[in-house]
Design goal:
heterodimer, A: 374 residues, mainly alpha, 6% strand, elongated, B: 311 residues, Alpha-Beta Plaits, six-stranded mixed sheet, four-stranded antiparallel sheet, 29% strand, globular
């Protein structure tokens, strides 16, 4: 029963701690909204076709002229602007002066595309779509020679968006900025619940109540258990509030397996709270504790992809990232939400619970020491 | 059966001996004072009795049971009022007392009654649902005491409970201690305020450098220094008074100068009052008042250790 008394006391402390509630509930919601809105451009597919201006020279009698005309027709539907020029030199000059995204010269040799660094991303996109279109055109031409009846059906099946899907994006749903940051901010703030663990232990020292607790007929493990359960429970409630708020009020996408999502985040809560409790026992000075956590948490968050997605980083960074429990949780959440892929759920939960068990074992060992809490 | 029995207790911190072969016996119904300067070992003895600290040698028994063998039974019968205020600022007074009471196994309606009883005892019943952050230092001290009472312990240990509070709260606490004792509680009371110990304690142990240097009732302790006399001389200004010159007078064992009063302790078998007065008049120091003082615990401590209690 002493465990229950300590547990309920911890809940009271935490629910009355306004600063803690703001950090754990309000702060992640604000971050999701701010980052989700401010960085939406990084995730928005439609923006890739905006403001693309292609300058071209096509006498109209070249082998690929007909194919290029078809490309212009579909490109216009996709939002690309085409402008004709009569001179190649003028075309190249316009690209150098950054008036157009790229210059396409239709000649006897085929298609030549001229681009500069400043518009590389958009020009590459035009190049990729153009290549795909031309390849398809050549295929149709070959089929026309062998089986002319099949051509109308092939053309009918070709839609403007096909090129984009073939070139890069695929058909799977992709997270919007708000969706991405809902996941990463939730798991980031969950890491900060290590502070809840720290304060559960440190407060008794600061308030001088540890001695009084140890004078009572309460076992040291009962004390540790009550405190750990209290910190875990309140953090789980806070996480659930953020999760439900983001799902139902911010309309962020959490997939179709909310139970699994909550289970994964709960495993991270266990790891984070236990980390805090363990550190509170290992280090005696408050400055040292806050120094260590302020160093460890941002590193774990970075390698977890909490600040920016790590997909573009080199293999070494990705290898190191695997040591971050947050990385395991974030990638598994993405897999579950966007691919219904559950293959790494057990590993992610196991890794986080395992780390939690290590930190709690450290605390359980340390609390036996005389004066550990004093 | 004594409520608490300490036999040849030794506690070391590294090479430093904090408690050196201490033996004490606290009987039912006593207010047992442990008197000593800061760092004498009082709190270490208290922490050992409460089960907070282990010890290197000796034996500690509470109500006949050894604390090492049966810590839960011993702890259940002890109420501790720590030296530092040990309460939660974000729990109300009621919640504070209730929380600590539940740790001693109290539940249900009985719990509520005991909590109210404890708050009433320290005069905080009307503040039961207020938060300690709005309390004065004295009120916090009283709540600190209430947290030790709700489970009705047989032995209450108060470790310097009046440190840093106003005289009104101090008097309230001292009255509470006496009242608890009248209700049948045995109390161990530590302090370095000699006046408090002298006022409320029925038996006193004087501790210095981890050792018991004297033990007994007030009268028994004072009997140790019955061979001294005290004279308090009040003057307009003490600037011209030399303690060293006064100590040269035959029979003077100690001189203390505080504010405008010169406190002189002399051997009882030597009548030197005329020489002391002559010193003052001879040096042109006008006397405002002369008082003869009976020995107190301060004198006892001074005589036994050669220094003042609050040095």
């Amino acid at each position: 029963m002493a465990v229950f008394s300590i547990f309920t006391k911890e809940l009271k402390h935490n629910t009355r701690n306004l600063k803690g509630m703001i950090l754990m509930v309000l702060f992640p919601i604000i971050l999701i909204v701010v980052l989700g809105t401010a960085l939406s451009g990084m995730f928005d597919r439609s923006s890739e076709f905006k403001d693309i201006r292609v300058l071209y020279k096509d006498p109209g009698d070249k082998p690929l002229s007909q194919a290029f005309a078809e490309f212009r027709k579909h490109g216009t539907e996709m939002g690309i602007t085409f402008t004709k020029t009569e001179s190649s030199e003028q075309g190249v000059e316009n690209i150098k002066n950054r008036r157009y995204t790229c210059f396409v010269n239709v000649s006897d040799e085929g298609l030549e595309l001229t681009k500069t660094d400043w518009s590389a991303l958009k020009a590459n996109l035009v190049e990729a779509v153009l290549k795909t279109f031309v390849e398809r055109y050549k295929t149709v031409a070959v089929v026309a020679q062998v089986n002319p009846q099949a051509v109308p059906q092939m053309i009918k099946n070709s839609q403007a968006g096909d090129f984009v899907q073939v070139s890069s994006l695929g058909e799977k749903p992709r997270p919007r900025a708000m969706d991405y940051y809902a996941i990463t901010m939730l798991t980031l703030i969950t890491l900060y619940s290590s502070l809840t663990g720290v304060y559960a232990i440190r407060n008794e020292k600061t308030l001088k109540t540890a001695g009084r607790l140890l004078c009572a007929p309460v076992g040291r493990y009962e004390l540790l258990l009550g405190k750990a359960l209290g910190a875990l429970f309140i953090t789980l409630i806070q996480v659930l509030v953020v999760l439900l708020f983001s799902k139902y009020l911010l309309k962020t996408y959490w997939g179709e397996h909310l139970g699994t999502i909550f289970l994964l985040v709960s495993a991270e809560v266990v790891m984070a709270v236990s980390l805090g409790i363990g550190v509170a026992f290992l280090l005696r000075s408050e400055a040292a504790i806050s120094g260590v956590l302020n160093m460890v948490i941002p590193i774990l968050v970075f390698f977890g992809g909490g600040y920016i997605p790590l997909d573009g980083f080199n293999k070494t960074v990705l290898l190191i990232a695997n040591a971050s429990p947050l990385r395991w949780i974030n990638t598994t959440l993405m897999a579950v939400i966007y691919a219904n892929d559950f293959s790494s759920v057990a590993a992610a939960i196991g890794f986080n619970l395992g780390l939690g068990a290590v930190f709690l074992s450290i605390a359980a060992y340390a609390i036996r020491r005389e004066g550990a809490l004093l | 059966m004594p409520v608490a029995k300490i036999e040849n207790l030794v506690k070391k911190f590294g090479d430093a001996v904090a408690v050196d072969n201490v033996s004490l016996q606290i009987e039912q119904g006593e207010i047992f004072g442990i008197l000593g300067p800061n760092g004498a070992g009082k709190s270490t003895i208290i922490n050992v009795i409460c089960g907070l600290l282990s010890f290197d040698a000796g034996k500690v028994e509470i109500l006949g049971r050894e604390i090492k063998r049966d810590p839960v039974y011993c702890k259940r019968n002890i109420g501790i009022v720590p030296q530092d205020i040990a309460i939660y600022e974000d729990l109300s007074a009621f919640e504070n007392v209730k929380f600590f009471a539940t740790l001693y196994g109290l539940r249900g309606m009985g719990l509520k009654e005991r909590v109210e009883e404890a708050l009433d005892f320290v005069g905080l019943k009307d503040k039961a649902h207020s938060y300690p952050k709005a309390f004065s230092g004295g009120m916090k001290r009283r709540l600190n005491i209430a947290c030790a009472l709700a489970h009705r312990p047989k032995l209450i240990i108060m470790d310097e409970p009046t440190v840093g509070i106003d005289p009104q709260s101090r008097n309230h606490i001292l009255r509470s201690v006496k009242k608890l004792n009248e209700l049948g509680c045995t109390i161990i009371y530590t302090s370095h305020y000699m006046e408090e110990v002298e006022e409320i304690c029925s038996k006193i142990a004087i501790i210095d450098h981890g050792k018991v240097i004297a033990e007994g009732t007030k009268d028994e302790l004072k009997a140790i220094v019955m061979n001294t006399n005290g004279v308090w001389i009040t003057v307009d200004s003490v600037h011209q008074v030399s303690a060293e010159r006064l100590k040269e007078i035959k029979g003077v064992v100690h001189v203390e100068i505080k504010d405008n009063t010169v406190k002189i302790t002399s051997s009882a078998d030597i009548n030197n009052l005329d020489k002391i007065i002559l010193y003052f008049t001879g040096n042109g120091i006008p006397l405002k008042n002369i008082e003869s003082k009976a020995p107190d615990l301060e004198t006892v401590f001074l005589t036994l250790t050669g220094r003042k209690l609050r040095d």
